[in-house]
Write a structure and sequence with these properties.
CATH class: Mainly Alpha
Largest sheet: 2 strands, antiparallel
CATH superfamily: Winged helix-like DNA-binding domain superfamily/Winged helix DNA-binding domain
Number of domains: 1
Structural class: mainly alpha
Helix content: 25-40%
Number of helices: 4
Number of strands: 2
Order of helices and strands: HHHEEH
Shape: globular
Distance between the termini: 51 Å
CATH architecture: Orthogonal Bundle
Oligomer: single chain
Strand content: under 5%
Strand order of the largest sheet: 1-2
Radius of gyration: 20 Å
Amino acid sequence: STYGAVARAAGYPHGARQVAQTLHRSFGLPWHRIVGSGGEIKLRGDSAVEQRLRLQAEGVAFRGRRVDMRRHEHKFEKKPRKGSRPRPRSKRLRATTKL
C-alpha cells in the first residue's frame, strides 16, 4: 500500500509523512510493504535496495523502478464519514415496452 492510503485508513487523510516517520521509528512493523504513490520506493541508498530486495523476496513484481500496483496494491475498505447517513440506492427503471 502507499503512505497516503495507510494514513487515510487510519483516519488522517493528510498524514502520509507521519506514517513514514512512524515506520522509521518503529521495530517489527513491515515497513518495506509501504511505498510512495504510484509504487515508487521513496527511500534512498542502501535502504531503497533493501526494500526492493525484501519485496522481491515476497514475490512482488516491479515495472521498471516501481511496484506493479495493479497487481500488488492493498485497497482498504472505505469507512463512512462520521455523521453521514448511507444514501438510499436509486431504483433503475426497467424498459417494459414491447417492440
